[in-house]
Amino acid sequence: MKTIAMKKNSMAKTKASASASIGKSGRPEILTEELARKIIRMIEVLPDTDEQVTWSNIVAKVKQKFGHELGRRVLSTKEWGGRALIAEAYEQAHAVQRQLHSQGRIRTNSTMPRQALQARIETLTAKLKVAEQTIAELRVMQYDKLDILRATHFDLRLEVETIKKQKPEKA
Is residue 89 part of a domain? Predict the structure, then answer.
């Protein structure tokens, strides 16, 4: 008799604990709002890095960066506060990318191979060094001219008088 009462008591406890832990059973949530905000920041940067804003790229980047293989359906339909935040970020980034394409402001060097980019960097740094040297030479020449002007002692009033005297003679 005691065992039956104990079983009923333990069953009541498990039912109470089960009803109290609704939403906590099963696997923990992977796509939290915090992770979604990080994914949104990553999506917003995609047009600036000249990467295609596609769901396959986003899924691949999420797997690479965060280590979670989340599908397009999960990313696009998950809502917080009644808003599908990731889907909204995707739409905005896609619109920005279309606008950049229509304006023709896509970077030309983004598809160049690494060696070509390094060669271009070397030529540009060489041009920069030459320009810096010419600027330094011009600066030295201007300082010399200013120093000569400063070092010469002449009275401006006398110069003005001599110029005035020379004008009537020319006329």
Answer: yes
93-99: list long-range contacts, CB under 8 Å, 24+ apart.
93/43, 93/44, 93/46, 93/47, 93/53, 94/53, 96/47, 96/53, 97/46, 97/47, 97/52, 97/53
Per-residue confidence (pLDDT) for residue 99, from 0 to 100: 87
The count of other CB atoms within 10 Å of the CB of residue 38 is 13
Q: In this structure, are residues 43 and 86 in contact, taking their beta carbons and an 8 Å threshold?
A: yes
* pTM, full prediction: 0.47
Element (H, E) at 36: helix 33-45
Whether 121 is in a domain gets the answer: yes
The answer to whether residues 122 and 100 belong to one domain is no
What is the domain range of residue 120? 112-170
* Confidence band for 147, pLDDT divided at 50, 70 and 90: confident
Residue whose pair of structure tokens reads 């606008």 in the numeric block: 99
Measured between alpha carbons, how far apart are the two ends of the chain, in Å?
A: 141
44 with 88, same domain? Answer: yes
